[in-house]
Amino acid sequence: MSVPLRSGATVVPALAAGIVIAAVVGWIQSGQAVDRRALPFVALALVVIAAGELVRLDLGDRLLAPVSTATAVGLVLAPLGRDGGGLPLAQAVLAVALGLAAGGAVLALTGRPAPLSDLAARFIGVGFVAALGRSQMFGPDLIQWWQRPDVPRWLGALALIGAATVGVGVEIALWTASRSRTWRISWLALVRADLERSGAVGAIMTNVGALMAFAYPAIGVWALPLYLVPIATAVIALRRAQRIRDIQHQLITALSRLSDETGHTNPGHAQRVARLSVALGEELGLGPLDLLAVRDAALVHDVGQVTLAEPIPDGATLGAAPAEQAQVVLDTVRIIEAAGLPEPMVEAVRGSIVQFRQLREQGQTIPVTGRIVKVANAYDDLTRGRRSARAAALERIHLGLGYEYDPAVVDALARVTENA
User: Fold this and answer.
1) CB 381 within 8 A of CB 411
2) CA 97 from chain center: how many Å?
3) pLDDT tens across 300-327, in order?
4) Which residues pair with 180 in a beta bridge?
5) Which pTM value belongs to this model?
């Protein structure tokens, strides 16, 4: 389960389509044929680009295709032309478009998600790499420049990696900008969050793609399979980590139902607190990773109630004694730590019992995710999902403003619930 996103953007796919049309027109006007010596590398690269779309990495709301991207970067930067340069720009762009389209078609035919905005952003990013590779460097273009005898090889490799890095950065920026979302998060904050999640994979993609092109003059078509080995190994490891995250989510879902099933909490309480916590996080501008942490923490925040000898009436911890509230949180933390669940989520649960005054008066660190869960839990304990109880709940919560609850979170609560 991922934080909901609505990807209704059409600008990026439209821009990609315009680039393809321009490339077709440019190729027809130039009348250039593909150098036959380059055909084996181009053909193999197209197959790998298409196949690479089938082994993507799922980051929750983002799909990365490291094998596909690295191969496309290698294809557009490799010196495949007759004069030691790369393929003509139009040919390079259309080759990448063909490979990505083939991969996307296979995904669609097999019923797997193939977001057009993902493919379009990837295509435009690689297109930037192709354009940079053909930019003039003191006379020759970049691809020809790094092969000159007077250019140190390390400098040439760095130049190719730099071009590839710009392209991957463009892909991330376009993908982020293409999302039509309810999140009230600045574009730069989202780009920063995307870099945090995919930065390591992006570094692998840029390095492998650039080095693939760098090795082509020496070993020809073998550069492609040789440099795919490290990225394939990384993808296998990352997909294994992804399966672990999927298992963790299943465990979180099961734990979120435990207190309901045992009758310790009001039915649907955890799910309502999770939805409200995510809405509050969006209102406060939290990034994707923090939103996932606050959602998961909210889902399991009351699981410690199952250890109580005497259930709290209606499961409303707000009405329990402070010592009993603290015990519920401590038991919850013990359970989720024993389950090996992510630390940001554990910290959010731990912070949900701390009074806000301890941050203001004593400087104690309380994660904003914990402050959000605290307010969302209090609101649902008071309303039990009833819209008619909103005014009384807000009035009660305002009595603890600045002492028990974070005023910024309470203000966000008033805005979020106003038209809910």
Assistant:
1) no
2) 23
3) 888 888 877 677 776 667 767 777 778 8
4) 6
5) 0.72
